[in-house]
Amino acid sequence: MKILLCCLAGVTSTLFSSKLKDAASRKRVDATVWSASEHAVEYSVDLADVILVEPQLKGSVDKIKALAPEKPVILISDEDFVNFNAMKIFDLAYNAVKK
Q1: CA pair distance 16, 42, nearest whole angstrom
Q2: What domains appear along the chain, each with residue ranges and CATH number?
Q3: Which residues sit opposite 67 in a β-bridge?
Q4: pLDDT digits (tens, 9 = 90+) for 41-94
Q5: Whole-angstrom Cα distance, residue 8 to residue 57?
Q6: Residue 39: strand pairing partners
Q7: How far apart, in Å, are the Cα atoms of 37 and each of 28, 30, 49?
């Protein structure tokens, strides 16, 4: 499973990516997780199975969906992002891919 985390500048996304990798490992799912800034996401969407969007970019969700209309794009809630609720977000991503 390949998860792209779309972020504003990459400061917190590195840590969140690490937490998502840990969540995948605990679920025994082989996952690759990486982050890309909003301006570079177009270069990574083809590689991803699912795209997670940080709450700071909620105004860009439609633009990101247009880049990969066949792939699930999930906006992370403010609460889940602030609390680094990686297990919940991983489950959302996993379920979106497995549909």
Answers
A1: 20
A2: 2-98 (3.40.50.2300)
A3: none
A4: 889 999 999 999 999 999 999 999 999 999 999 999 999 998 989 999 999 999
A5: 7
A6: none
A7: 28, 24, 17
| Strand partners for 32 | 2
Question: What token pair was written down for 34?
Answer: 């990486």
Q: How many residues can be counted in the chain?
A: 99
One-letter amino acid for residue 35 of the chain: S
**75 CB neighbour count, 10 Å cutoff:** 19
Q: Token digits for 83?
A: 């609390």
Instruction: Measure the CA–CA gap between 56 and 86, rounded to whole angstroms.
Output: 17
3-state secondary structure the chain: CEEEEEECCCCCHHHHHHHHHHHHHHCCCCCEEEEEECCCHHHCHHHCCEEEECHHHHHHHHHHHHHCCCCCEEECCHHHHHCCCHHHHHHHHHHHHHC
Give the global pTM. 0.93
Q: Which structure tokens are listed for 57?
A: 């970019």
